[in-house]
Fold this sequence. Notes:
The chain is mostly beta strands.
Amino acid sequence: MRNVRTVCLAFCGVVGLLAQSTLNQQISGHVTDITGAALPETSITVTSQDTGLVRTTRTNGDGLYVVPELPTGVYKVTGEAKGFSRQTVDGNQLNTNVSVEVDFKLQVGSQAEEVTVQADALVLETSSGELGYTVTGAQASELQLNGRNFPELLALLPGVSTTYTDGFSLFGGYGVNNSAQSINGGRTDSTTWNLDGADNKDNGGGGNNFININPDAIGEFRALTSNYSAESGTSSGAVINLSIRSGTKGFRGRLYEYWRNDHLTARAFNGATVSKPKLRWNNYGGNIGGPILLPFTRFNRNRDKLFFFYSQDMKTLRTATTNTWTVPTALQKSGSFGNTAVRDPETQTPFPGNVLPASRIHPSMQKLVNIYPLANSGTANYVFNAPQPSDVHQEVFKVDYNLNANNQINFHWVHDYYEQLNNITNLVSYLRQIPGLNSSVQWNRVITPTWINVLQFSFSGNVIIEQKDVRPNELFIKDFTRAGFGITLPTIYNASNVIPQVAIQNYTTLSATPLAFNNFNRIFSLKENLTRVAGNHTLKMGALFMRSRKNQDNPPAINGQFNFSNARRPSSGVGLADALMGAFQQYTEFPSVRQGWYRFTQIEPYFQDDWKVTRHFTVNLGLRWSYMQPQYSALNNTTQFLPEYYDPKQAAVLNPSTGVIISAPNRYNGLVIPGNGFPEAARGRVVQYADPAVNALFHNLPKGGANTAWGNFAPRVGFAYQLDANTVVRGGFGVAYERIQGNFIFSGINNAPFNSSTVVVDGVVDNPTNGAATALAVSQITNSHALDMRVPRAMTWSFGGQRKLTKDSTLTLSYVGSSAANLSYQQDINQLPLGTLTNTFLPGTTTVPNQNYLRPYKGYSNIYQFNTGANYIYNSLQAQYQKRFGKTGSLSTAFTWAKGKTDANAYNYTPRDSYDLRADYGASSYSRKFVLVPSWVYPLPFWQGGGRWYKQAFGGWQVNGTGQFQSGLPINPTISVDRAGTGSAGVQRPQLVGDPYSGETVGGFQYLNKNAFALPTAGTWGNLGAFNIYLPRWINVNASVAKSFFTRGRRDSQLKWDVRFEVYNVANHLITSAINVGGFSGPAIVNWGQKTGTTPPRTMQATARLNF
């Protein structure tokens, strides 16, 4: 930590304050006379046409000028030089993270003479090599978004590959999923999300946003997708900068409602077996913005000082999800098993007629088994619609204050509250509540026209609560307490009165675990940017300081969980029969809920030089350094397994046949706890605080149990060369680093010794502690990590050109590539070598020893360890065509042709062979080979002027829409058995012996040919490569028609109604989106290779908006 302080102090000495760009927009240009000679000392005035903000500067000796750190908006730029006519360029749209070039050719004349020209609707990017795309606020508002979830706008851009079925599905169990798209080959959780410069990403929750801002509150957003400048950081993927709308000189507002209903929805692909789920969705709200005026004062009389914007948005969703349970028959629930042999566990003799005697059926277990409903689809499936209501309430408040020409203050506060009924397919449901927050205050200071400082403090985060309205799911039970349900099964710790969880072999688990989950997550950030315009150089320097605090519960099964299977010794041979008799194979119970206090600090200084080498050639040079402290628990209550601390001399001695531990000199052999002891805060919170055996696991290891990487230097270089007035060539290269998301340490609290559970095998439900206590059973480490966790690093590069085809149309064509190293994945470091269980036998027998007896680290089964050695590579050709027509019309088409490959698709990906990660190198699960996405806003060109009734009725309509034409995503078939003999099942792949896409079809459901697959030869891997099977191609079109009605029929009226009718999936194409490819056991397997999900059916939506 001393090194960190030294770096910070040294950097602050240069910068003066911590620094990071929050406003990265500028207007620059070149001033000449009509002969092309540079005009130095020309006065340049930049004026916001929205707020009246004025900034001035002068050209240098080469006639160049730069006005940096401007807010987004529309500007007029005026150039004045002695002896020349004044010239103004009006209507310059300045978007987020964009540099607009406004050049002047001044004519000889009087300064009293003024020439005004209108800026082009589309401009070329001539001063930066970074690859980025802008989505305007108008597009966010006018293009139909399914569910009005703004991340869907990313699908309109080149280089984006989506993994969701439709935009409405982005609204999930934790709010809106912002990890459902890959950008330029990066993992889906590697994108940075900023809201007016404030961090909006949950760094420990898979990449979700704290706030899902409503589209009507978005001013615009800019997606920086490749080789961006050194000002951008915190993640290795794309950077998404959203700007919140601001108030302007005039009062403007909108009231709206969006409405949909299942009566306007077509049937899903399984609509024949279950009724159409109910759907009632309403999204209503409004916004207003304008100047803040104080009555009876002269304050802000010119409306150029203080502005506000306020938005309120509400969503109510009443719907249901279709689910399937595997259930027993009525005879089976009563104890009659027909032709299936059932033995008496005590004598191993068959029961007469395979029927359990009534005296052997446990009354409490009979009640629990009777929870299963009878099948309504086939003989073993119960299909049902589970209601799941959701509500969201969001408020957005923003203030912009122009103190004077040199000082501006901006403040925003965004709060939303999300509530959804969860656990809807289990026995106990609860409300999940997530209040989210994103706020910041920013001070922009113009020290001189060439020295500008921007300081920002932000505070963001959310809280997740799952303790409200815990209640029985009335689809199955009326009371979830043991007494109310009428069962008398004892517990060990008496920590919960809820009925136990019951898992019965071959049937859906009766899950009744009451969650007591709390998550309190806050991120504090300090950012500042210092800009210096020095000749032809625009110099920027700065840093980011971020501190994260996240307290999170990890609720185990405190009500107990029974497992019933024929693995019990002795068993009836049928798991359900064992359950009815109350003879469990395993029982697990935890005494309490555990909590971790997770923390990290992140510091990232940078330096950037944008050098205008010549009028037409710009070079961008930058360097960023990242200090990413490994995340840790402040209570020091996480453990990990490190091989260097495993002592073979203290290894457990196992029974070779059963794998049960005979003796264990050190039950925690190889386990370590980060730090040098429990802090005082752990007293009373960590049960093991005073346990000597636990305190012996401290070895003065670094916080988080991972070494800190200090060499995270990220160079960035780019260029832009303007060949002529309509063509620019751009390119660049950049390095970026990624924080490993916090889930790698959050579950470390579940390892011994902190899991504190009692596990009993082969017992009876009336006395669970009288079974074989598994204190002598091997332990599984579900979440460990290496000590030397390297920081994931990504490299991006691009080369391409942009051509202005006409005044209002452009074409961008680019080659874009990226690669990454040191990506996280999860390996089983206790996996057996290939073929071990197929050619190893107990001495003098043909019996294979228990797999745990053969493992390298005795006393443990699987040891899943996070490591950082995975990679990906991505190459693509990307194109974008944009056109503007009329006042509101637009057309955009994005095309991507790409190839992405990786050996680990996610942070917790487990390869089939933990000793050969490269064997899983294959197609990226989130990368599509080609994507074509057109979008349009087209005002119909006839009868727009109104007049007669038929012109008013049928004129002025607008047609909007989006299309998606893309290849299918790759999927990864697996087998259910351990054919490789490694002790790891579920991650192995089958043998490919034919064409997987040929063969029979079953009722339109069969997609893959089961006969094209086979189990591998024992002791070998299957020949099917990772993610080598593809879903079908995807075609979807969404469209809408809209019309505005003006008060008194006047188009210049300030009050108008918009009505719109939207259709999603116009052609009702139900494209296969999911296939059952898990657990292959041979061609006789039922339902394998059949589709289990499709894109949603055609859905219609009506919209009404009042604009004023």
